[in-house]
Write a structure and sequence with these properties.
The protein has 252 residues and is of the alpha/beta class. It contains eight helices and ten strands. It has a single domain, classed as TIM Barrel (Alpha-Beta Barrel).
């Protein structure tokens, strides 16, 4: 029964991804969920994906046991994401095998070769999971070659010394020019925009670079690990308005 449910969710993700690209609907992820009430508020607001941080040095860290409990209260067709930072493959496999995640986000210094090794290990363990690699960007030279990364999507975050994410800082979106976005599209690698996004600037970001998805953490918080329900509502409203604007201008 569990494997059947996971196949359903996997199919839904593929359908959702296709519809998002064709219909111009930007998907929305909120990361750093630590409390049940925040997860419930995110679902009510219309958030598409929730993320749990499995990095012990983060102020938003949760243990897999707690994340699994939170996930058990969520509705179907919501993508559940586990964020890992330089974690051993065995740790990732053990967490994925528990069955409450649909996506793994690698947010550390993992190389393309290490991503490939993880993908192979997941395949050998017969674990089906979406794999996302975060890349920290400060300038155009930091942008990855999408064709070289054996992952399903790339997440672009701000490069801030001492932070693996959740810094509240933006990077210069102008580096995501049409050429790089075209390379990502040709490689079949949707890109997710992160880094300093808030309900106040997310519409501008979408209008400028048309990401597949946006990923927020501190931008919808009242304190680290404590989400603001009203901010999440505003976020969804701003993203949907931006999507309408992009379609009217012919960007999507």
């Amino acid at each position: 029964m569990r494997s059947q449910g996971r196949r359903w969710r996997a199919c839904w993700r593929l359908v959702g991804r296709r519809c998002s690209i064709e219909a111009g609907v930007t998907r929305i992820k909120v990361c750093g969920i630590t409390r049940r009430e925040d997860a419930v508020a995110a679902v009510a607001a219309g958030i598409d994906a929730l993320g749990w941080v499995f990095y012990p040095r983060s102020s938003r860290y949760v243990a897999p046991d707690h994340a699994a409990l939170l996930a058990s209260h969520l509705p179907p067709f919501l993508t559940r994401v586990g964020l890992f930072v330089n974690a051993p493959v065995a740790e990732i496999l053990a967490t994925v095998a528990r069955g409450f995640l649909e996506c793994v986000q690698l947010h550390g210094d993992e190389t393309a070769q290490e991503c490939l090794q993880l993908r192979q290990a997941l395949r050998e363990a017969r674990l089906s999971i979406t794999l996302v690699k975060a890349v920290r960007v400060a300038a155009a030279a930091d942008l990855p070659d999408p064709a070289l990364w054996p992952v399903d999507a790339l997440l672009l975050d701000a490069k801030v010394r001492g932070h693996y994410g959740g810094s509240g800082h933006c990077f210069d979106w102008s580096v995501l020019d049409k050429e790089w976005r075209g390379m990502a599209g040709s490689a079949g690698k949707p890109f997710i925009l992160a880094g300093g996004l808030t309900p106040d600037n997310v519409a501008e970001a979408i209008g400028r670079v048309q990401p597949y998805a946006v990923d927020l953490s501190s931008g919808v918080e009242s304190a680290p690990g404590v989400k603001d329900a009203q901010a999440m509502l505003r976020l969804v409203q701003q993203v949907r308005q931006a999507d309408l604007g992009s379609r009217s201008l012919g960007f999507r």
